[in-house]
Amino acid sequence: MNVGLFIPCYVNQFYPQVAIATLELLEKLGVEVSYPANQTCCGQPMANSGFEKTSEQTYNLFIKNFHSYDFIVAPSGSCVYHVRNHLNTIEQTDEVKHVRNKTYELCEFLVKIIKKEDLKAEFPHRVGLHQSCHGLRGLHLGKSSELIGEDFSIPGKLLNNVKGIQLVQLDRPDECCGFGGTFAVAEEAVSIKMGNDRIQDHIAHNAEVITATDMSCLMHLKGIIRRRNLSVQVKHIAEILNSN
Amino acid sequence: MTGHPEAAEIFNRNEAHVNWHDQALWFVREKRDKASSQIKGWEELRQLASEIKAHTLSNLNEYLIQFEKEATKNNVNVHWAEDAIEHNKIVYEILQAHNMKRIVKSKSMLTEECGLNHYLEEKGIEVIDTDLGERIVQLAKEPPSHIVMPAIHKKREEIDQLFHLHLNTELSGGDEVYLTREARKHLRQKFLDADAAITGVNFGIAETGGFVVCTNEGNADMGVHSTKLHIACMGLEKLVPKFEHLGIFLRLLARSATGQPITTYSSYFKSPQQGDGMHIVIVDNGRSAQLGRSDFRSSLHCIRCGACMNTCPVYRRSGGYSYGSTIPGPIGSILSPGFDLQKYSSLPFASTLCGSCADVCPVKIDIHKQLYNWRQIITEKTHVSFSKKIIMKATGLVFSHPKIFQLSSKFAKGFLRTIPRSLVNNLSGKWTKQRELPETPGYTFAEWYKKNRQQDVIGKKR
Questions:
Q1: Which residue of A has its CA nearest to B44?
Q2: What does each C-alpha distance from B227 to A10, B81, B104, B230, B277 come to in angstroms?
């Protein structure tokens, strides 16, 4: 099995440690993984802003970079959701279909493809899991609180197997953080209020660390945390799963 | 014209009020969660309801004709209105023909959409909204801010003042029992004095020609039974094929709306009493056009439960009025652009696309996907700011050219460096108003990878 590592543009830029943790985690599990050097972005920033057509060249580049891999894995539910659901405006060649079907969010890949739930990690802290919306409701990495049925959470399952971790219960287990791409600037007031409300929920339950499958949510939350001099930390789930 | 972000920003200046509004609606969302998990097969019910609606809309012409035929057999007069103006005219002409001047009206978002109250009042007809919440906003001369809880934005103390001013009540400090009793007294007299009743329609049943009106206060029934004339106004998407389908929709509606197992009054109207008159006005007003837009057709599944508003993290923190449309919130944001794309162009962007609305929707409208689709149309067909277009074009350019991307990544702020400085400041200014920019670690992952994993990664083949 041959895995192409897809690192979202802003992770490459601002959070290389998240990408390194993802890479190391996959390598530790014996996955043959490599990082195609010419990758840029999945095209979501433009498409979500209503400029889907402007994204098409980026889509084509994405396919070119990743079509030769058995699987494409990214430490982001949101980018993966975009690749699976929105790369439908370009011609649906076999290569495009392959890439769309075989692109996985990291946790999903670990549990569903590698079939590993215990990663022998250790992280003795109180952790709040922020369930990033595109992973939760878009990729069904868990059951959203709106749906009625058996509870499950793929990231939650992986975290529960981490030694020493204490997962905190939140009042609102899956409310959006208010990042939403350009929403964060276009709807600045609501975005900030949503972010702050999320942070307060975690703090109220004594979380030391907020984790998520998406660094974009955490980038927004961290921005507010730093401005308000709060002590709660943020860490991408790959960093926790890779810690021992 | 101000859009949603400006109105939402004003709403957010009073954080205590935002918290109160958010918690009031979240409380309803939690009641909904409890109610929907207490019956068997909730998800199956949603699926069935969605399929019945899809089927009905695909065969709407036939079901409408069947409905008209059956209703006519039941001695009901059926009228067809192409738009709001025609709807209002029809209602007025019916009232005029019977020389009726005093109307009691139960809740109907359709008549809000058509501006019926204003139209009739201008012609010297008194229209009293008899739903308590609607009466409150009517006295305040405001539109509803929520489709199920029209006065959810008002605190008890404000209602106390309002009643004191308009209904001569004592100031009670917001005593809800006192205020409710006074409202009841006031409305009782209006019912007794009324000539005609106007109601909305929750469900029209094609096979019987009957229709269902759901209220919690019994005010629709009270109006209909205390007057000689009943005019029911119905959007043409409100049909279900069979009587038995009500068993699905009535179970979903109240649980989704307020967390009740069923609305207190779910009244089935079929034919007028001897000597009384009953009319149904079937209204298009843009619905056929929406039906013709395949990406947005399922927005017509909506049964107006309001669950998408209660769950929406943006609605709860921006208020119904911030949308500036008759139907606010997520569902309003996919319906309104169909009426006026330019006017409502900010609404599909008033969302993080979190998808909570779609998961809560009892008829499974993929609201977040339709928001995304409207965004594509809006940037193409309406006036979009020059700076936004440039930013997107520049970003697209950077992301489709690895060399430019890699070059721009070398700079601290990355690809933002490739677009004009003033635009960056504009963007990052909004980011940094109440938030820090991410710290720059001094190296990119791509650089780290090149240094630490010396392998050719290009030519890997499956």
A1: A148
A2: 66, 24, 9, 7, 9
- What is the Cα–Cα distance from A5 to B274, expressed in whole angstroms? 76
Chain B hits for A149, CB-CB cut-off 8 Å, are 43
Kindly give, in sequence order, each residue whose CB lies less than 8 Å from that of residue B361, ignoring residues fewer than 6 positions away: B46, B256, B307, B308, B367
Shared-domain flag, residues A103 and A176: no
Amino acid of residue A191: S
Q: Is B33 within the bounds of a domain?
A: no
Q: Which chain B residues touch A220 with a CB distance below 8 Å?
A: 435
Tally of domains within chain A: 2
Instruction: Find the residue in B nearest to A49 (Cα).
Output: B375
The pTM (predicted TM-score) of the whole model is 0.95
User: Is residue B460 predicted with pLDDT exceeding 60?
Assistant: no
- Cβ-defined contact of A61 to B398 (cutoff 8 Å): no
Q: What is the CATH number of the domain that holds A220?
A: 3.40.50
Q: A8 and A83 share a domain? A: yes
pLDDT digits 0-9 by tens, B209-234:
999 999 999 999 999 999 999 999 99
Residues 6+ apart with CB under 8 A from A94: none
Q: How many residues does chain A have?
A: 244
Q: What's the average model confidence in pLDDT over B235-262? A: 98
Choose the closest CB to B359 out of A60, A137, A182.
Answer: A137
Q: Which of A84, A113, A142 is where one domain is finished?
A: A113
Residues of A in contact with B414 (CB under 8 A): 9-10, 13
Lowest mean pLDDT among A215-229, B167-181, B407-421, B442-456: B407-421
Question: Residue B290 above 70 pLDDT?
Answer: yes
Do A224 and B435 lie within an 8 Å CB cutoff? Answer: yes
Of B324, B353, B381, which marks where a domain is finished?
B381
Tens of pLDDT along B317-335? Answer: 999 999 999 999 999 999 9
Q: Using a CB-CB distance cutoff of 8 angstroms, which residues of chain B are in contact with residue A2? A: 460, 462
CA atoms within 13 Å, Cβ hemisphere of B96: 10
Same domain, B180 and B79: yes
Is the interface score ipTM higher than 0.90?
A: yes
Residue among A52, A148, A186 whose CB faces B349 most closely: A186
- Give residue A149's domain range: 126-241
